[in-house]
Write a structure and sequence with these properties.
CATH superfamily of chain A: Chorismate synthase AroC
Oligomer: homotetramer
Strand order of the largest sheet of chain A: 1-2-3-7-4
Shape of chain A: globular
Largest sheet of chain A: 5 strands, antiparallel
CATH class of chain A: Alpha Beta
Radius of gyration of chain A: 21 Å
Helix content of chain A: 25-40%
Number of strands of chain A: 18
């Protein structure tokens, strides 16, 4: 339930205002160079307080590796990555403990588990994704070390504002080392992790929502490069199915697409099908990549292209109607202001992590990476 | 890899032009009344030849249950459902065996497994979903018997033609027993399984594509009713994540949405959040169902609403460019005409099956259904 | 529950007097030469009626492979091996249906599942192990094809009669190709699968028990040769732990030993430890093999040596006291004579099968055999 | 690989001389009262330095729970139990790093993983079982809270000295609350956890071995009381098979028996079978418990009786022959004295833990304990 992956397994733990959060990563083969910095740099990308668009909660999110590394390399034993919570304010949540927030997991957790750690959403908090990112950082290192695989997420839409950059609009950017590097830089520089030229419009859109004590959602695209042909095991372990599961298990994700996604439904077969050809060196190539890198559940060598729909953050300052589970009354609430008006940019490292973990797991299961030792 | 589910497990087997296809269903609790007719009626809905829009391959798809039933009820032992293939024409595929069809799994299977049973796509054929439907029929019976759960799939879009019926356009239809029954009837009567009044437009759209030896895709909506509050186990066993995985593991599915899906990304938090209230009997109710029945990965008692994007059938008669893996030449192919110009209506029972199996598995894992005996 | 293995997975199905028994084997890599004869020869070794010491039930146990093979080789898809039951006599069991047989699963199955297929023990019958043997035959072929691994089981004890042949008494027999071949022959020739020179004593012991309408048990030793160093994944996927689980899941097995087993507990460390040395070619060798081929849960290159204790067949003709679940009376029963007075020789192919499946699964998981394609 | 259990899952991590050891326990239902003391008391029983028969390594083994508890009760979220290592002396192991100790995992880990944390055996150290005990303590609490289940382990043999107390010698002790309590006390008082009257003989036996710088093994019996009828899921999830796997995954265990174990092989069916009867209140009873509480892989309501063979500790001061992996020479070693001359008494809490975790997992899977919330 809190473990993801079969051969490369990430078990996450911790609550928003508990003592610590983190992950145990099991199944990483030995001899992978790995240190805390590899993980820290990914956690820093997820950290709150990176821009005015995120919660001001102050957390260093400093990771400690407590097992599984010897002389700078993995040993094949489980790796515990731990982050102690610092800025815990459990009292902030006392007043909302009986009034489940609309759009939140408060109600379902409370009814399912009875003893619900409601402080900051407890287990249902986005803070739990620190564990995902720890697992993802290790998976990314493994994928990069063995196959030079690169995973890149960026915002393509905020609310109703569609960006002018996306894989299908600008596929050539992903084929060139230079342009790829500059893409990466522009993503990391943008507070919304959006490389589109119209990202300022998006920022204004969010600022307007913030004035109304409201929140916005968006769409993120994730591209994985250099995945070899043959990853994914039909029928029920298909690469796209596992990726969909991984991405949909991130809070706030309401839709997942592979390749052209819902657009595919509108095309004719003759438009959709990616024709193949041999290039001059007799390498197999595709004229297009409408499939998004997956055919029959197996990677086909082209970039893997995914998109996820992220709903607006449910915690908003605006007045909302809800129920009081103690008094059985219909009531109104206004949620205090420590929340992200847009979670999209901070979800990106989490989405990349889930793609990385899924790929690492499937590449071991498909025989591309040795399960025990590099 | 060919097993789906942890506690309610469906293992599918068989090839398009092999001797048989089917499934072993393990983990169905004992004492569920079950007979071959329960399965046959679902297989009939998936069968080829139901309309002019499907392949003319002649298959009775007659299921035999070979184990796990005693005196008309399950025993808790694995249930083998077997369908012998009758209309096998392996020779039809000889000419395409070295020229992978664009948009198909031919290439990836061939490169991954080397010994690829290319006859009719072998293991990658839609025929394999007979196993899914067998598993789904048993899951449906279990869900209906224990919680009166109903799973309903229907077409909401074909190519560029959007239907005028959908859950969000007509939510009231799902609240009333009579209207629900008439909805079901109109679905089953329609060759496209489309209850929209403009479904004739869709049919014309397909006929036109058929004239061009082309194919079309579409969008299917699936609604599950009467799922109790509490199904789904965060973090990585979320109801929506498992459903996404199950649906995305169906061939041709390129996108999955829950609730408002990609539409959510465009809304403000105040628009998206489903407010709660107590009705007169102090039952918890939601004013809207934008979330599609899932909050924090756990069912919240409202209808579960899913949508999947289905790409156009890749097998088309139109000339296409591809490669010859034996001669290393770039070539052209025209695929013979025994294929569905639109697979959407036949995918619906398969999608319902995946939803049913996922729900059965999670309801056992969430403690709603006893794992061993009813 | 009815699936064994994670990467090489065997799902067994069927009842003693149902329509069929068999297995679906998933995860066997493609390109392994395999035909029905490979499986049939193992089933023949398990078949009833091979000697006066086994049940006279007449079953050909003819296997049909219905999927997963193409042009004489595996394709990586699941392999269905099916055996139709022929000699079903459900009526024989009517009189015992309310009086659970002592030492049998009748009572526990009945209480756990309520709807218990009591005919011949139904699902709890030894007949179900046909599925194990099908899975084991494929695993054996895979192990032999890839690493020339050989798995050899034989009786070392019947009742109180200990045989004079065992691995620790005659280790040299296993080092020499000629002596090994002659060992195999003497095993297969013996009705008890016992290569000891005093096996006639054992036969007399059984005959005497048969006269008393009683049954006997015994001890089986299983040796696996040529397993490379490195198989098994600590902490909880240890080679010995998985083997113990596999063997203990065979009906009637009450104890499992690895290497010197319970004898180890009596030794001093200096006696037990297997000292290492380099031979002339600088190969690592062990002076002894007290550990039975496993150190720290990982194979160490020496023969894997296992022993299992098999209790006497519970079905005996002798009068026994039991209960009537319908009348709530204490009663006496005498069970009809169609049962094996000693199940030991027929369990041997099943035990070998479980060892083979366990090894195949772990060798894939440990990276020795490619998970998808040879 | 480092996770045990399917529904109640324990993931262990840490190395002997790394920064910390511990476990994440996932799948414990919410609302179980639990605090650090529940775990600490079990860790104290496993701790080194309890008697002259154990290693003098000084470790407090103080556990911290860092997640999963809220207001003194579990929440259904994963529980992280962490123990920081204090007394690390990595330098002690420098001299043996190239000379694998006979009977140890040094060689197999080194060859399998290459980057082997050899300090104190690293991952292969008994210290790793702190994680097992943390998981076991939570499982014990769950079993005791829900079904009043009690798990009791004790020494029945040390080297060649057989104790005069065992379940089959003294079954009546387990039926009476008073005698059971006094049994428990006598176990905890004994440095060998041996309630036999001749345990002093055993102590002398060990002392003599210590003088020779040698070590001894032994046999432990574990009894589980109050397990209800119906736990265990055939065919491959049998209670006895899972228990065998769990126990065999403890380092140094070379054999496992259920009920009469290897003794069963010597009996006639009429001796072995446990006859049933109705007592005056029409409860089902067994006249004997030769089966050790399991019939057909399912618990039958009688005490579950298990025995494990523990080999002598491989680390001994006596001179031994081995190899130098760096110089390729045959060499001799004498291992420094910080090791347990007998590990048997300290393995007992670990064995109890594995039995408890196995039972907790199977009782959830068999529907006896709700998977999410008590």
């Amino acid at each position: 339930m809190n473990t993801y992956g079969d051969m490369f397994r990430v078990t996450v733990f911790g609550e928003s205002h508990g003592r610590a959060v983190g992950a145990v990563v099991d199944g990483c083969p030995s001899n992978l160079p790995l240190n805390e910095e590899d993980i820290q740099k990914e956690l820093n990308r997820r950290k709150p307080g990176q821009s005015i668009f995120s919660t001001p909660r102050k957390e260093e999110d400093k990771v400690e590796i407590l097992s599984g590394i010897f002389r700078g390399k993995t040993t094949g034993a489980p790796i515990l990555g731990l982050v102690y919570n610092k800025n815990m304010r459990p009292k902030d949540y006392e007043k909302i403990k009986d009034t489940p927030r609309p759009g939140h997991a408060d109600l379902t957790y409370k009814l399912k588990y009875k003893n619900y750690d409601y402080r900051g959403g407890g287990r249902a908090s986005g803070r739990v994704t620190i564990g995902h990112v720890i697992g993802g950082a290790i998976a990314k290192k493994l994928l990069s070390y063995t196959y030079n695989i690169k995973i890149l997420g960026y915002t393509v839409k905020i609310g109703k504002i569609e960006g002018d950059f996306s894989y299908y609009k600008n596929p050539e950017v992903f084929e060139n080392k230079e342009s790829l590097k500059s893409l990466e830089e522009s993503i990391e520089k943008s507070p919304l992790r959006c490389p589109s030229t119209n990202s300022v419009e998006m920022e204004e859109y969010i600022l307007k929502a913030m004035e109304e004590k409201d929140s916005v959602g968006g769409v993120v695209e994730i591209v994985a490069l250099n995945v070899p042909i043959g990853v994914g095991n039909p029928i029920f372990n298909k690469l796209n199915a596992e990726l969909a599961r991984g991405l949909m298990s991130i809070n706030a994700v309401k839709g997942v697409e592979v390749g052209l996604g819902f657009k595919s439904a509108e095309l004719y077969g003759s438009e959709m099908n990616d024709e193949m050809y041999f290039d001059e060196d007799k390498n197999i190539k595709f004229r297009t990549n409408h499939c998004g890198g997956v055919l029959g559940g197996i990677s086909c060598g082209t970039p893997i292209v995914l998109r996820i729909a992220i709903k607006p953050t449910p915690s908003i300052g605006k007045k909302q109607r809800t129920i009081n589970l103690k008094t059985y009354e219909n009531v109104e609430i206004e949620i205090g202001g420590r929340h992200d008006p847009v979670i999209v940019p901070r979800i990106i490292p989490v989405a990349e992590a889930m793609v990385a973990i899924t790929l690492a797991d499937l590449m071991i299961k498909s025989g591309f990476i040795h399960p025990c030792s590099l």
